[in-house]
Amino acid sequence: TKFGGTSVSSRETWEHIAAITRKHLATGVQPVIVCSALSQASNKLERMVAAAVLDEHQDLQTDLTHHYLQLADALGVSSDLITLDLQQLQQWLTGIALLKEAPAKTHAQILSLGELMMTRLGHAFLNNKGIHCSWFDAREALQSVSTLHGGADDYLAARCNSEPNPDLARQLISCGADVIITQGFIAANTHGDTVLLGRGGSDTSAALLAAILDADVCEIWTDVPGIYTANPHQLPHARLLKQLNYDEAQEIASMGAKVLHPNCIPPVRRA
Ligand code: ADP
Ligand code: ASP
Ligand code: MG
Question: Global pTM?
Answer without folding.
Answer: 0.97
